[in-house]
Amino acid sequence: MSFRLANQGGRAVLLSGGGVYDLERHTEGAFSPDSMAAIARHSELHAVVGRLDAVEPDGTIDESLFAPPVPTPQKIYGIALNYSAHAAEANSDVPEHPSVFGVFPSALTGPTGDIVVWGDTTDWEAELVVVMGTGGRDIAPSDAWSHVAGVTCGQDVSERAVQRRGNPAQFSMGKSFDTHAPIGPAIVSVDSLPDPDDLELSCHVNGERRQHARTSEMIFDVPTLVAYLSSITTMVPGDLIFTGTPSGVGAASRTFLQPGDTVTTTIEAVGTMTNRCVARPS
């Protein structure tokens, strides 16, 4: 059976039928409460879900209680310019190879966490995020999806002035401000997706749709990205791939996030995140 794995109060929980099930409790200690350990054992979670119908949940789903479903990834890869229309609005050439940058894990926040507006050019970027479940090196494209624990929603929030500071540009710094990488609400197993290579994605800011695309429009699809990244770095369970954003970012219209704004990110069969923008601490 398919699974949805979330992080509530620092504990791994499974979501089923509107209920929350503590993973350690419902496996009688066979699993620890550690979400990272659960991701590494993702193939075993299917059987656990199959037994949940016979037991009472620990509570009902309240996504405001959820932390990042991958709390401490070793690596976060970001993919730039992975949709042709976004490359065009950025006045950039379509890349011949994946354009990769790193995001520091301290940027992570949960699916309802606040986004701190640290500067005057804070921008939204809705993205499908891939969660690696089985590590490896030189993973073949044909094997890539079998190495994936699941997918989740993400926002690659970007402070454009910092991102473009200097030559070469500072992508990793411009995208690594604290709170600028919301993910969630849960990791959704690949077998629950109607077509993992073709999912509808959208972003609304204050209720107005700003981005809308399908992941089938990616220049480099998920198997290609996994194969490319694993040809250079050994991938481990919990590594995240922010797979790129479609057109419609604020920089194209010189419209940026302000304190009080609300960013809503939705991916078909995966879920929705709603993040409020707040002013930087004084």
Task: Describe, in plain words, how this protein is organized in 3D.
The structure is a single chain. The chain has helices spanning 23-26, 35-40, 42-49, 84-89, 160-163, 171-174, 222-230, and strands spanning 4-8, 11-16, 19-22, 59-60, 66-67, 76-80, 99-102, 108-109, 115-117, 122-123, 126-132, 148-155, 158-159, 181-188, 200-205, 208-214, 240-242, 262-267, 271-279. The protein has seven helices and 19 strands. Strands 1, 2, 3, 4, 5, 6, 7, 8, 11, 12, 14 and 17 form a twelve-stranded mixed sheet that branches. The chain has a five-stranded mixed sheet with strand order 9-19-18-15-16, with no helix packed on it. The model has no long low-confidence stretch (mean pLDDT 97). By secondary structure, it is an alpha+beta fold. The protein folds into two domains: 4-61, no CATH class; 76-279, Fumarylacetoacetase-like, C-terminal domain (Fumarylacetoacetate hydrolase, domain 2). β15 and β16 form a beta hairpin. The protein is globular, with a radius of gyration of 18 Å.
